[in-house]
Amino acid sequence: MRIRPSNVRPQGAGSRDVRPADNRPADAVPADARLTDVRPVEAGCGAGRPGDGRRWDLRWADARPRGGSLRTRLLVFISVVLVAVCAVMAPTTVFAQRAYLLGNLDDRVTNAAERSLGGASLHPGLTQDLTFLNESGHPAGMLAARLDADGTVLAAATVGQDAPPQNLTETQISALKGIATDGGLHTRTVPGLGTYRFTALDNNGVRVLTGLPMDDVQDMIGGLVVVEAVVAAAGLTVAGCVCAVVIRRQLRPLGRVAATAVEVSHAPLCRGEVTGLTRVPERDTDPGSEAGQVGAALNRMIDHVESSLAERQRSEERMRRSEERMRRFLADASHELRTPLASIAGYAELMNRGTDRIEPGLAWRRVTAESARMTGLVEDLLLLARLDEGRPLQSAEVDLAALVAETVWDARAAGSGHDWQLELCLDEAPLVLGDEARLHQVVANLLANARVHTPVGTSVVAVVEARRGMCAVRVRDDGPGIPPDLLPTVFERFTRADASRVRATAGSGAGLGLAIVAAITSAHGGHIDVHSEPGRTEFRVELPLAGETGADTLTWSPRVSVR
Predict the structure, then answer these.
(1) Shared domain check, 108 and 47
(2) Phi, psi angles (nearest 5°) of residue 389
């Protein structure tokens, strides 16, 4: 009887939901399935109806028998094939051997019949004469009989072993009736003598029936059947054992592959760093065998899963860091903008009150200064945003040596308390393809960074050199250096030696200068790195020479290294 899930309800369940555990509709349950278990499931553990306290799961089992293991099926199949082969070969061998033995016996019967007919033809008038049996040469056990025209046996006797012929009894003679004298071969069982092979010949009215016993043939056939049965049984047993061992050995790699898959399935892939997943041993990945192909395919799948999960983890980590940087960026940007806005609002309120505590000219100067500071900060943020979007920059050949020289002169004027030096290690003008204004900003920011963060009297050296298709600009100073904990994030936005969110000292900036330097350098296909220790800090910017870029427009892709 088929049980529909929609019709099964526990006692007292009322309108509680009852459905198969796999959420199949009632019509999807196989007709030959049987109900094995009914159990309640707490709300929230399954797809119960809203408001239900619990849901009832029906466990269905397929009534059709499941196939055994591959090893068992292979062994059964091979055994059936071997039994079928033996069942065909054994009877075929017996029949062939029997036909061969009967053929030999028939030849002997024919020869004996011709000899007996020749002996009887010497006395054709004596219809019951069997004296020819006394002649030597007749095989022992041979049976001979004289027949009349109707086939009636007139006299019959058997040849004994070293004994005179022995006449047959009436019962034995009656078993010989009905054998035609056509020269054909016939099989008859004679009581007391056994089964014989007969033939009857006729020569001018002399009719003789001759037969030889089939005991030897039957004994040989019986012995052959016994031998073949024993050999077949032993062969099947040995073959079955050998096949079982061979199948076990051949499927052992497949078992190890399955064990590897089970072990991987138990690995915590949903959390943590997914590395070091178990692989199928190399000995089980031989492409020359099916099991090896499965093992190699499983290893490739595990590699793909591991690399995909690792990439997903890296992506999540990058996203987490990006979100963290974004939160920090928004906090820092809001702080940097809040400071000048608060200053402007304060001066505006004082002027609005008409108080004499501050001169209007001073208030306007402070408002203008804070407005310029806020404008510069917004422009820097907009520049970084444009570079982040990969917008193309203006492209033209720029003489980097001349640009650095001009920037050093500007820095000398801004920071006369420092010792400024310029070194050119060049054989020809270093031409780079890029935006001259942005490249000027790179060098100016590096020099300003050295001026702001080093004390008066510090030596700042700008070096320009070219080699192997690259032009390098190095800015080196002998100041106090960058703190080691700040070095890995020196090119990030709003990174300052003063980590607190209080306003930096005058001229210290908002912490965007080096971030802009890194972004512009990357947009020109170059990279920047920094090396710092107490008493020596060096920034190194490398840009491809004009003949090495092969591009008319430049876009930004981050490529910054820190050492």
Answers:
(1) no
(2) -75, -10
Same domain for 529 and 434, yes or no, is: yes
Number of domains in the chain: 3
Which string of DSSP letters, residue by residue, matches 248-315? HHHHHHHHHHHHHHHHHHTS-TTSS---------GGG--TTSHHHHHHHHHHHHHHHHHHHHHHHHHH
User: 370, 369, 392, 388: which is closest to 380 by C-alpha?
Assistant: 388
* CA distances from residue 127 to 118, 134, 182, 337, 511 in whole angstroms, order as listed: 14, 16, 19, 149, 145
Residue 118 domain-assigned (yes or no): yes
- Interstrand relation of 18-20 and 54-61 (parallel, antiparallel or unpaired): parallel
pLDDT digits (tens, 9 = 90+) for 437-487: 889 989 999 999 999 889 999 999 999 998 888 999 999 999 998 888 888
Q: What confidence tens digit (pLDDT) does each residue in 204-244 have?
A: 777 888 889 988 888 888 998 999 899 999 988 999 899 98
* Contact call for residues 556 and 519 (beta carbons, < 8 A): yes
Residue 273 lies in a domain: no
SS3 39: strand
Distances 30 to 5, 14, 67 between C-alpha atoms, Å: 12, 26, 18
| Domain, as residue range, for 476 | 392-549
Cβ–Cβ < 8 Å for 524, 409: no
- CATH code for the domain in which residue 141 is found: 3.30.450
Token digits of residue 180: 């035609």
Q: Torsion over CA of 350, 356, 358 and 364, rounded to 10 degrees?
A: 70
